[in-house]
Design a protein that fits this description.
Blueprint: H1 6-10, E1 12-13, H2 15-22, H3 26-34, E2 41-43, E3 46-50, H4 51-65, H5 70-81, H6 86-133, H7 149-155
Antiparallel strand pairs: 1-3, 2-3
Helix pairs in contact: 2-3, 5-6
């Protein structure tokens, strides 16, 4: 991760600042704090978030968009907070990304199969509606010749 500038290191945010910036509720931010993903300083009852907290919140939301569970996000944070080295961190992240990709590809196949079933059902329904509306057009051997229809109407 790139090093923070002095300005970034000194930057602080209120819970309202972060809620506005990331279009979240303050309750959602407190939830991430309760889950141990954010750790703001306290000044009495007031929470003071650092640039690091802001970055972590950004990563939580990115992980959420990618479909990561909070426990996976926590695991990644713990890896990056530890001194185990960047290689281990990156290897674990690549593994999580691969697992997520596999899940999404399976979901994509499932969706394509369901869409095919929907298309088939819709085609069958449209065909049946046509048969109900124009029964003489849907049969291979017409029950009644169309040319006879005007004669029948005149008789009726």
């Amino acid at each position: 991760m790139p090093r923070m500038t002095r300005t970034q290191q000194a930057a602080t945010y209120t819970i309202t600042d972060l809620a506005r910036e990331f279009n979240l509720t303050t309750r959602a931010i407190r939830f991430y704090e309760d889950q141990g993903l954010l750790n703001p300083r306290r000044d009495g009852r007031k929470r003071i978030y650092t640039y690091r907290d802001r970055t972590r919140l950004k990563l939580i939301l990115r992980g959420k968009r990618l479909g990561f569970s909070l426990s996976e996000t926590r695991e990644l944070f713990e890896l990056f907070d530890s001194t185990h080295g960047e290689e281990k961190q990156l290897c674990r992240f690549v593994k999580i990304l691969g697992e997520r990709r596999a899940i999404l590809r399976q979901q994509q196949r499932d969706i394509e199969a369901i869409l095919h079933e929907i298309d088939t059902a819709e085609t069958e329904c449209q065909k049946r509606l046509t048969e109900l509306e124009y029964p003489w057009e849907s049969r291979s051997k017409p029950l009644l010749d169309r040319r006879e229809l005007p004669k029948l109407e005149q008789q009726g």
